[in-house]
Design brief:
The complex is a heterodimer of chains A (130) and B (197). By secondary structure, chain A is mainly α. With 197 residues, chain B is an all-alpha fold. Chain B has one domain. The chains are: A mainly alpha (130), B mainly alpha (197). The interface between A and B is large, with 45 and 43 residues.
């Protein structure tokens, strides 16, 4: 143990640089693991991707489990038009912002999705032990 | 940038997929994994055909990797010639021996598990004059696995492709951090054993 300490005391700047690099690499890995945990928690309970400009009508309908017609109606397209253009492109073509289109789609999805069933009643409190 | 490339996929399909994945394999900051997940989602909706997607994605990634290898091998010859003349400690020979020993594993894993290292492994394999036939073999094996894995994940998690892409990116970077930490720890352990060089 004391010989290791003696060797550490003889470290030159190159070795101290390695120590700093080792700590930085470990901190970076830890941050990435924390970020991974955050992303994994987004998977359960099931949460959909936010609606993005690259998504098509069919993608959003598929992702949110609603018929294509719900999305088409929300953005004022004829039902069954099978438009494959991305939503961001559709918004630009109409001179609208993507946020406006997204808000309309979100409202339509909320209207088309049945409300979640009420939570089951809480179990009665356990009798106190003697 | 990610949104722009992704928005071209539904309209232009396989040619955009090919171009984007080739450039990502060369090292341009394009979202290769997210693209594969997105096309997997489009495959699950019947918007794109499965086998042409797999063939296009694999050939694009392999082509981009070959560009990196060739750049390292032929572009690096002049550079290495200059280094070799001044390399009295045989460090270059050591690096080549290391590439021979660990090259196959490094090439295979950097295709699908530690993707951020992929372009660097391509360049360094070329620089170390690693056998092209073996590079190609491990490259194809790794890229087939990468494409199969993420297209399937895109099909299965077709409503959560961005979350899965973020998750896989964090995993890959965490592994890069762990590998770097292991390398620095190994160098420190050597210094402790033999004393500072």
């Amino acid at each position: 143990m004391s010989s290791i300490l003696a060797r550490v005391q003889r470290f030159r700047w190159q070795q101290w640089l390695l120590v700093v690099a080792l700590i930085a690499a470990l901190a970076f890995a830890a941050l990435q693991v924390a970020s991974m945990v955050g992303h994994a928690r987004a998977l359960y309970p099931l949460r959909n991707d936010p609606i993005a400009p690259w998504m098509t009508v069919a993608h959003v309908a598929h992702a949110f489990h609603v018929p294509d017609a719900v999305i088409e109606e929300a953005i004022g397209m004829p039902a069954g038009s099978s438009d494959r253009r991305p939503l961001g492109y559709i918004a630009r073509q109409r001179g609208e912002t993507f946020e406006v289109i997204r808000a309309r789609i979100e409202a339509a999805i909320a209207g088309a999705t049945p409300p979640a069933p009420p939570a089951p009643p809480a179990p009665p409190p356990a009798p106190a032990r003697r | 940038m990610n949104d722009l490339v992704l928005s071209w996929i539904p309209d232009y399909g396989l040619p955009v997929l090919f171009a984007a994945l080739s450039l990502a394999a060369i090292g341009l900051p394009l979202p290769g994994t997210l693209l594969l997940l997105a096309v997997g989602s489009l495959v699950s909706q019947g918007e794109l055909p499965l086998w042409p997607v797999v063939a296009t994605a694999t050939s694009a990634a392999v082509l981009g990797d070959q560009v990196g290898y060739v750049a390292g091998r032929w572009g690096g010859e002049r550079l290495l010639g200059g280094i070799e003349r001044h390399d009295r400690g045989g460090r270059l020979a050591q690096a080549r021996a290391l590439a021979e020993r660990w090259g196959a594993l490094g090439i295979f894993l950097s295709r699908w598990l530690i993707g951020p290292l992929g372009p660097w492994v391509n360049l360094s394999s070329g620089l170390a004059s690693y056998s092209w036939a073996r590079f190609l073999l491990w490259d194809v094996a790794g890229e087939v696995l990468w494409v199969a894995l993420y297209v399937t994940a895109g099909k299965v998690f077709s409503d959560q492709v961005t979350v899965i892409a973020d998750l896989s990116s964090s995993l890959a970077w965490a592994l890069v951090g762990v590998l770097l930490a292991a390398f620095f720890a190994w160098r420190l352990a050597r210094a402790l054993r033999h004393g500072p060089a």
